[in-house]
Amino acid sequence: MEGNTAPDPAIHRMLHPRSIAILGASNDPLKLSGRAIALMKRFGYTGRLLPINPAREQVQGLPAHPRLAEVDGEIDLAMITLPADQVVEAVRDCAQRGVPAAIVGAAGFAELDEQGALLQQQLVDVAAETGTRLLGPNCLGMFSLRDKAMATFTSAMDGDFTPREGPLAFVSQSGAFGTFIFSAAQHAGIGISHFLNTGNEADLSVAELLGGLVELDEVHALMAYLEGVHDGPELLAVARRAHELDKPILAVKVGRSDAGARAAASHTASLAGEDAVFDGVVRQFGVVRADGMDQLLGAAMIFAGGRRARGEQLTTLSLSGGAGVLMADAASRHGLDVAAWEPEWQHRMAEVIPAFGSPRNPVDLTANLISDPGMLRRALQIAVEHPGSDLIAVLLGNADHAADELIGAIEHAYRSTDRPLVVVWTGGSGRPRERLRELGIPCFTDPGRAAAALGALAGYSLRPAPPSPQRPPDVDHKVVRAILCEARDHGRRHLDEHESSRLIAAYGVPCAGAFTAKDPHGAVAAARELGAPVAVKVLSRSIGHKSDVGGVRLGLRTDAEVRSAAEDLMDLEPDVRLLVQRMSTGTELIVGIKRDPAFGPVVVVGLGGVLVEVLADSRAGVVPLDAASAKRLLTSLRGSGIFAGIRGQAPRDLDAAADAVARVSWLAHDLADELEELDVNPLLVDDRGVVAVDCLAVLR
Amino acid sequence: MEGNTAPDPAIHRMLHPRSIAILGASNDPLKLSGRAIALMKRFGYTGRLLPINPAREQVQGLPAHPRLAEVDGEIDLAMITLPADQVVEAVRDCAQRGVPAAIVGAAGFAELDEQGALLQQQLVDVAAETGTRLLGPNCLGMFSLRDKAMATFTSAMDGDFTPREGPLAFVSQSGAFGTFIFSAAQHAGIGISHFLNTGNEADLSVAELLGGLVELDEVHALMAYLEGVHDGPELLAVARRAHELDKPILAVKVGRSDAGARAAASHTASLAGEDAVFDGVVRQFGVVRADGMDQLLGAAMIFAGGRRARGEQLTTLSLSGGAGVLMADAASRHGLDVAAWEPEWQHRMAEVIPAFGSPRNPVDLTANLISDPGMLRRALQIAVEHPGSDLIAVLLGNADHAADELIGAIEHAYRSTDRPLVVVWTGGSGRPRERLRELGIPCFTDPGRAAAALGALAGYSLRPAPPSPQRPPDVDHKVVRAILCEARDHGRRHLDEHESSRLIAAYGVPCAGAFTAKDPHGAVAAARELGAPVAVKVLSRSIGHKSDVGGVRLGLRTDAEVRSAAEDLMDLEPDVRLLVQRMSTGTELIVGIKRDPAFGPVVVVGLGGVLVEVLADSRAGVVPLDAASAKRLLTSLRGSGIFAGIRGQAPRDLDAAADAVARVSWLAHDLADELEELDVNPLLVDDRGVVAVDCLAVLR
C-alpha cells in the first residue's frame, strides 16, 4: 500500500522559504536560539528574517517583533527556539498567523520520558488540528543553501567553513550523525542543496520530506539516514516518484544486524521494523542502500555527476597491473563485469601502451605513465570509443608532478563522453583529488570504494521498474467471503488447512487435490477418487500442531494403508477430521504473508526442505507484487541455483512460482484488514508448474 | 609442506645494511640511477654509501670507486642501477666481491618478452650458482627507515615528504601500487620500518623476505601485497613463525574473484594460484587477509598499537545513538559481539549520562557530550572497568572546539588499560584525528572501517594455533604400496573404486563394506554376506564414467534384485567387473585431494547432495591437517548448519568427519609425489560416525 504522492505545499514553502520567523530569537549568536540568525546573516539569507522576541526591539541588529501576530506579510516558516513547555502554544500562534510549517528544535519530548511523550502527543494533536506542519521536535532544523535559509542551530558551519552547494538533498533522522555525514560529504567535495533533520518525527517524516525534495529541479539525488521507518506507504510513494523522475534515493538504514536492531530499539522511539522488509522495498523500488557512511558518500559522489550506466561492463585503465586486478576483484563483488576486450580493441590499445603492459582489460598502462603522461590521453580516447565500456575507471597514484597532464587527459575524456568515468587516485598529496572534484569528476582514494560506488550506479541505472501489479481477474471473491464469514461466525482466528487452501485456491493458486473425511471409510473413498499415492492428515486449526502430534501420514498407496493411517489418526484426538490429499513432488518453496509495522502486509518467500534450515534464507516484498517482481524475489534467494534444476532435473517453472507468489500477494493486499498471517509450506514447483501442499492462515 | 624457517643471513644484512654499493651510480639526483644516493644523503643514511662509477671520481659529492672490486671492507648490499643487459655480469662482480645480496632495479626481464625471460633465467642461474641473493629484477628496491638505508628509486619520497618510522614492515610484489599503499599508509599516520618491492622475484620472494623481517625486534606486524604466491611452503613457514612471535601478517592478495584471477594471469608472470587455497592457508595459519587497501590500512592502524583482544565483545560509546547502531551493524558483520551490558553496569553508566541517553551498549552519550565533554572521561572510566569490554570504540564527530578535552579523556582511558580502544571521529577539520594518531591511538573516519579493523584484531587475537598434525599411527603402508605398485606395473593412472577405497581405508578412513564380483552369482553371494540393502556398481577406472553409462544400481534388497541388476550391468561393457557395496545413509560430504601450483597437495571439503549444487561451497586446506583444523574447515562451510542435524536428526558426528579429513590429508601428504587427485564423494556422516561410499584416485 502506498501513500500520497502530491507533496504538501507547506513542505514546498519550507524548502524554499521567502520569510522565516524565529520564535524566541536570542541576541546572542552563540546561543542555540541565536545561531540560526547568526548563520543567515553570515551567509546572506535571501528572504525576510523575522526575529520574534517580546523583550527586545532588536535581535542581532535586526528589528524584532514582540509577537508573531504583529508581523506583516506572508511567513513561510517559523523556527521555534523556545523551551519544550512553550512549544505547543507557539505552534498554535503559528497556525493562527497562517504559518504553514514550523521547526521545533527543543528536546524534552518522547526521547526523554513519559511526560515528554505526553507533551509530544499534544504536539501531534495540535499539528493535526491546525494543519500546521512540524519538523521535529528534538531536531537541528533545516537549511537550504540556494537561498541561504539556515533555519538550524547545527554546529556543522562552525569556524570559517563555507558550505558547498550541489545537487544532493539530505534528510537525516539523527541530528548528530547527520551532521557528521554532512561534514564528511562536504569534505569529500559533495555539494548539498538541503539538509533536514527530522528528530522525533512528531509530524513530518523522512519520507514525506523526500517527497517534497524530489520535486525540486535543483535536486538530482536524495540521501536519507534512517534509524527506523515510520510511514512505509509514504516511502513507497516517494520511491516510485523518484524512479519516475530518475532521481536516486541513497539510503543508510541502521539496525541491519540483529545486534543493531536491538540497539536501535533501545535508542529511539523508532520501530526498527524488520530490516528484511526494508531490504525488500529497496530491491522492489530501486532505492540504493548503503551499508554505512563511506558507501553513502561514495555513491553520492558518483550520483552527483548525474550520469547513468548503459550496462555493467567496466573498463579499467591503471598504471599498476596489480591495482587493476584489485579493482577487478572489487568490481566483481559489486556486480560489475570485467571481461577482457575484444581482440581488435586490444590491438588498438596495444598500439598506445608499452609492450610489457596489458591491453586486455583491466588495461595495464604500466608505471611508464609517470614519465609519459600523454599515454593516458591516447588510452582514454580508445576506452571512450570502445562501445562495451559502460563504465570507465582510471587508477592512478602519487605522481603529483605529472598531475596536471594526467588531469587534463581525464578531463578531456570525461567531457567527450556521457558514460560514467571515475578516478581512483591513491596516495600523494591529495591535491589532484581536490582538483578532479572541483572539475566535477568523481575521485576516490581506494579501488574498493570506487567499485562499490560504480556497482551502485550500474545497479540503479539498470534497475527494474517498480512493481505495477495487475489484479488477477479470476479471483473467486464469493468463496473468500464465505470462508472468512464462517470463521468469524464461529469466533475462530485459525483457519484449518482445508479452508486455508481454499482461500489461496480462490486467488488462483494451484492446490493439491484433497477431500476432507470424517472416518476411515471416507478416507479410503477420497483416496480412490484422488489416486495413489495420497497423504492423510489431521485437519488442525493451529499452525504446526499437526506435525507435533504426528498427525501426518505420507505416501499411502493401498486402501489398507489409507484405512490404517486414518484409524491411527482418529485415535489421536476426539472429533478429529481428516484431510486426504494427493501427493506431489517438486522443489520446496515457502510462501508466507506477515504483517510489518511500517509497511503492512508483506509477502515472504524462501526455499523449503533442507535449504531453509541450512541457509535461513528468505526475501520479503511489499504487496501487491507483479509477477516480474515476484520472480526477482525468488531469483534473489541465495539458494536460487536450485531453480535451474539440479541432478539432471529440468529447470523449475519459475514463471508459475512467481505467478503464485503474486496471487498470494494480492490476497495479502485485499485482506490487509482481515488477515494476520498465512503460510504456504511447501509450495512445490517442478518443471511444469506449482502446487500448494500445505497452507494455514490466521485472521486478525 | 612447509619451507625453511631460519632466514638467510644475507637477508638480515640487506634489511639493516651497514654499507651499500650503488653500481652505475649517477651524478644526477633526478635520474633513476641517482635517486637512491640523493635520498640517502637527504635522510642521512647511517652506514657507508659507496657509489660505483668507472667514469667519475665523485658522485653527488661522494667519492666514487671505478669497480666494486676496489672497495675496501664489507659490503652488505649492492644496488645495481645498470641496464638489463649488464646485470648478470654485475651480479657476478657482487658474488666475487662477497656481497651477499643485490637489488636489480632494471626492467626488461620476464615481464617484457621471451628474450627478457631468457635474461631472467640467467639471473636465476647466477644467483643459484653464486649464492648471491637478488631482489628483483623490475623492482623499486627497498628501504629501512631506522638506518635510513634508501636503496630505492621510489617516487614516494618526492617533495618535502618526511617518512614516518614505525613498527610495520611492508613487502609488495607491485612497485607502483605498493608505493601508493605506502604513501596512503603514511598519510594515515601509520609508521613503517621497511618497504621492499620484489618485482619479478627471480630469487627473493615476498614470503622469504617476510621471514627475515619477522625476526626483527622493531617489526611488530607485517604487511604484504601479493599478486600471486610463488613459494607456498615458505609462506607457511613464515606464517607459523609469525604466529609463534605473535606478529600478525596482514595480506592483500589480488585475484580473489574469477575476473581478478583472469586479469592477474594476464598481468604478471605470477601464478594467481587457486585463491581458495590461499584463503585456506590464511584460515589455517592466522594470516589477516584484507580485501583491499582500505582494509589493509585500517588493520595496520590498529595492529600498530600492539594490543590484543581477550574476546569478541565490543563496547561502543557514542555521542549519537544512530552512529552506535551503525557501529553495531558493522561490528556484527565483522564477527564481533555487541551484547547489552549487565544491568548493574548499565546502572553505573546511567549515573553519568543524560536520562535520554542509553546505558545499554551501544552506550548513547547523546549530543550533550559537546557541551559537557567531561562526561566522556566518566563514561570511559566505566567502560574500561567493565570486565566484558574486550574492545572499546568511541564514536565522535565534528566538535573541534571540544576536541582538547575529549582527546584528553580518550588518552587517559587509553593509557589506563591494555585493551584495544579505537576512536571514530567523523567529519570536522581532521585535526583531532591527527592528534589522536600522534598519540598512537587508532582513529578512523567511518564506523564501518573501524569495525572491520576491530574484527580483524579480534579474529587474530583469538586465532587457533596453526595445525600441528600427528601422523596417524595405524596406517597400513604395505597395502598402500601394494595398490600403487599394482597400478604402476600395469601402467595405469586411474585406480578403480575398490582400489581407491582400499587406499583411504589403509589410512583409517571408514569405507562402506564391499566385495568385488565377476558375475551375477558372485554379486548375490556378496550381497548376502553384506546384508541388504546393497548397491551394485560397475568397477570403473575413470572418474564419472560409471554414472555416465548408468553403471550404478541402488537399494537392492532381494537376491533377485541383485542378480537382475548384475546381469544388466554386465551387459554394459565386455569384461566388466562389479562392486557390491552395503548401502549407507547420512549427510553427504565431499572430500578431495587436488594439487595447487604454489602449495602442492591440498585437501578440499564441501557439502554434497543438493547443497553442493546450489551453494558451490567448498574450503581448501594445505596438508597435513590436524583434526582441529579439519573441523574448522568443515564448520566454515556456508551450509555447515546441516551438521547440527536438521529435521529432528541428531547432530552429525563432526569429530569423526574431521578425523577422516585429517587422515585423507596425511594420505595427500605422504603420497605427494605419487597422487594427482582423489575424490571421496560422498563421505556420509551421521550421528555415530562416517563412511566413505565412493572414492576414485588418479596417480601422477
Automatic annotation (TrEMBL), chains A, B:
GO terms for molecular function: acetate-CoA ligase (ADP-forming) activity; ATP binding. It comes from Saccharopolyspora dendranthemae. InterPro entries: ATP_grasp_subdomain_1, CoA-bd, Ligase_CoA_dom, NAD(P)-bd_dom_sf, Succ_CoA_lig_flav_dom, Succinyl-CoA_synth-like. This is Acyl-CoA synthetase (NDP forming). Pfam families: ATP-grasp_5, CoA_binding_2, Ligase_CoA_2, Succ_CoA_lig. Residues 14-109 form the CoA-binding domain. Signal peptide: none annotated.
